UniProtKB/TrEMBL annotation:
Ranges of residues in domain PITH: 134-329
Protein name: DUF1000-domain-containing protein
PROSITE patterns in UniProt: PITH, THIOREDOXIN_1, THIOREDOXIN_2
SUPFAM superfamilies linked: Galactose-binding domain-like, Thioredoxin-like
Keyword tags: Disulfide bond
Keyword Disulfide bond: yes
GO CC annotation: cytoplasm
Top-rank lineage group of the source organism: Eukaryota
Length: 331
């Protein structure tokens, strides 16, 4: 059953704003093609993140609720508005799932802080529903900085196009492997021609990375009748501050900032490996390349469900200046 609230009057919308600390509103119209395109993403976020009196997802039909749309100056569709304590906190215009999920990522941090201050349980790796699903707890003194990844500039090489793309790795929702929910697009990544994957992640600001959380939830043999089950990653290389992705031969030969060997004991009950990084080597990081070298088994594919970066944020990068330098290298 959907947790999304369909607004039927201005009074109801006001009541929702007053009764829920955070409200995510989807302003749409039935005739709007882009609205229909992004609707499944909004519904998935609603299913995974809604919490009574804390986080509420609502849909506002602008043809039926013109007063509400005019009150918040909605001039294009779809428009998503995030309210915090009844006030506009952020807005996303257009059917852009990346922007929507990035804004909701900020929402998750607010929800977590609210929950902690109220004494509620936050993500502890128990596998229960939380504002932002995380397969392991946070190290003391550090925060989830996954939202600092510039998803539109990420590049993932050798992934099976029949599985989800790079963006699903940073999805804040609980993996469907836990919920059993049917999804239009598989919300995990599998390698394609062999077991290797190469992921380039640029950041919005300089980061200090403390921990990498990797979730891998391959099915058991009896759940995978059609083909051999994919494996969890075993050997991983990390490279920092690269301007672009590496090639596979280059990644094989290049000395890594850190090389990681994972075994069965490293994966917790939620299928997550909590990988501590050599913190001194991960200061002032502007990008990260993750190279899955091989898998833990005899299969031909590796599966990744979620990635989380844990650490500290630093000085924000001036993206306009960086673009100008890139266009005019002589300056």
């Amino acid at each position: 059953m959907s947790k999304t609230v369909e607004i039927s009057s201005p009074a109801q919308f006001t009541e929702v704003l007053q009764s829920s600390r955070l409200v995510v509103a989807d302003f749409y119209a039935d005739w709007c093609g882009p609205c229909k395109q992004v609707a499944p993403v909004f519904e998935q976020l609603s299913q995974s993140l809604s919490r009574p009196k804390l986080v509420t997802f609502v849909k506002v039909n602008t043809d039926q609720q013109k007063d509400v749309a005019q009150a918040y100056r909605v001039t294009s569709l779809p428009t998503f508005i995030i309210f915090h304590d009844g006030k506009v906190a952020d807005k996303v215009q257009g059917a852009d799932p990346v922007k929507l999920q990035a804004v909701v990522g900020k929402l998750m941090d607010k929800v977590e802080n609210i929950g902690n201050s109220a004494g509620e349980a936050s993500g502890s790796g128990s596998g229960g529903d939380t504002a932002s699903w995380r397969g392991a707890g946070l190290p003391r003194g550090y925060i989830d900085i996954t939202e600092q990844i510039e998803q539109q500039r990420c590049e993932l090489l050798n992934f099976d196009p029949d599985t989800g793309g790079v963006r699903v790795l940073f999805d804040g929702a609980k993996p469907s492997a836990f919920t059993g929910a049917k999804v239009a697009t598989k919300d995990w990544v599998e390698s394609d021609t062999d077991e290797q994957l190469l992921l380039f992640m640029p950041f919005q600001s300089m980061l200090k990375l403390h921990t990498l959380q990797i979730t891998s939830l391959p099915p058991s043999d009896d759940e995978d009748d059609d083909e051999e089950a994919p494996m969890r990653p075993r050997t991983i290389k990390l490279f920092t501050n690269k301007p672009h992705n590496l090639g596979f031969d280059e990644a094989e030969d290049l000395s890594a900032t850190q090389e990681i060997q994972l075994s069965e004991k490293d994966w917790n009950a939620d299928g997550t490996a909590n990988v501590a990084l050599r913190f001194v080597k991960f200061q002032n990081i502007t990008s990260l390349v993750l190279f899955v070298v091989d898998g833990d088994g005899e299969g031909e594919k590796v599966r990744l469900d979620r990635l989380r970066l844990i650490g500290e944020t630093g000085e924000k990068r001036e993206m306009g200046k960086l673009e100008k330098i890139g266009d005019e290298p002589g300056e």
